[in-house]
Amino acid sequence: MVGGSKLFRCGIHIIMVILSLCCILPFVLLIMASITDEATLTLYGYSFFPKAFGFDAYTYLGRSAAKIVRAYGMTIFVTVAGTFLNVMMTMFMGFLLSKKDLPGRGVLSFFIFFTMLFSGGMVPSYIIWSQMIHVNDTVYGLIFPNLLLGAYNIILMRTYFTTNLPVEITEAAQMDACSELGILFRIAIPLSKPMIATVGLFAGLAYWNDWINGIYYLVKRTDLYTIQNLLNTMVNNAQFLSANATSLADQSLQVPTTSVRMAIAVVAVIPVLAVYPFFQKFFIKGIVIGGVKG
Hints:
Oligomer: single chain
Radius of gyration: 24 Å
Structural class: mainly alpha
């Protein structure tokens, strides 16, 4: 029996190692492709052990180092501000819907759930945000549309408050004349750190990877581009220059288009990989608590 248990654990470890490699190896291949010579990459394709190395892609990105740094700063600001607003509004709405005696609770829950099934579409959304709220060419256009609040996160937070916040504690707080805001900030939030971190991670990744809002709402103010918008523009410019470098006189226009795409992906993903380990324990705990009760 003991031998069978050891064999089972060994098998589980092997499976986890294989799954971990499936997650890690694509990033390794991405990094290796970004430092592979463009001609070698074109002839032999992607490889973990390239025949020739080249840093032309990073040299090309280095020419726009000032723009990249500024875009990183804008992305960090938008991600931090947007995530903070998203988490605060999600907590308020989730805590409100967790009150079983709330008038109209079922109707509000229905409308929130309804948005997960049906959407008005991009055109009505664009008209509302651009012509009625006027977020064009402002930083608000990167924060408010589409990402400020999500029904899925609200349901997660509501379910967490409903199932993991003891009624006895809230009743005791009410007997001590504690307001609803006091219960939220003094009791609910300290007991909900894992779920808050989980929702914050979801929102932060959405803001960091967003480039749609920049394309739609930043028409003239390219200086407000986030890193995703700037890198997307650089990819398009590289493809344009490469496609129009048709003669020997245009060799200076040629850029390593394939390796540049890999280098751009590396530049965009490394900050997320650097931050994620600090939130991992909260993220895992939040998912476990949210999915298992008892």
